[in-house]
Amino acid sequence: MSRPGLRERKKQRTRQALVDAALDLFAEQGYDTTTVDQIAAAVDVSPRTFFRYFATKEDVALSLDADAHEILLAELAARPAEESPFNALGRAMHAMITLMEQSDIADRSRFLKARELIESTPALFAGGVRMMMQNERMLAAEIARREGKDPGDLLPHFVVSLFTSAVRIGLEACGPGELNDLADLTRHVERMLRLAERSLRPGWDRPAPGEG
After folding, report:
1. Mean of the pLDDT values across residues 157-161?
2. What is the distance between the alpha carbons of residues 109 and 107, in angstroms, rounded to a whole number?
3. Which DSSP state fits 30?
């Protein structure tokens, strides 16, 4: 993969700086009272520059979740066609989490900070739910494509709903103030995905080997 050019790297740095400034301001003075002007000023750019990257302050707060979903969708599209829909989703999620775990400490800390903010801020939690519904539609469309199904077929929507429900429960297992390490998030989410997959088989209520 070729290295991004100077212009692209500068854009990436500005976007990251806006995200960091927004997360810090939201944590310090509250999401509702923080303005776009304040976020832009913290990075020494104009509000107009802010809007080149994000449409609203909600978008900047949810941007890391949006980035993660783009990775998940790309990983799902790359999974072998012979994998079952749920297994393909689970392995795509594992690949996405692995990429996150391999990122630097600043990236991991930024993601955890954003997750804490979303879980503890009603307006952002609602925005996250709206984003999740949009993401579900995109994942269902990709499952439909993989399986040769019509986009309106119920199977892709059922599989994606089961998958996202398992992920959501895994996220909720790390309540506000309890998410201190990406490994915690990984452990909870992957445990729920295993449980969801196992629940579709006979003997689902018996612990798998190595699980209590």
Report:
1. 91
2. 5
3. -
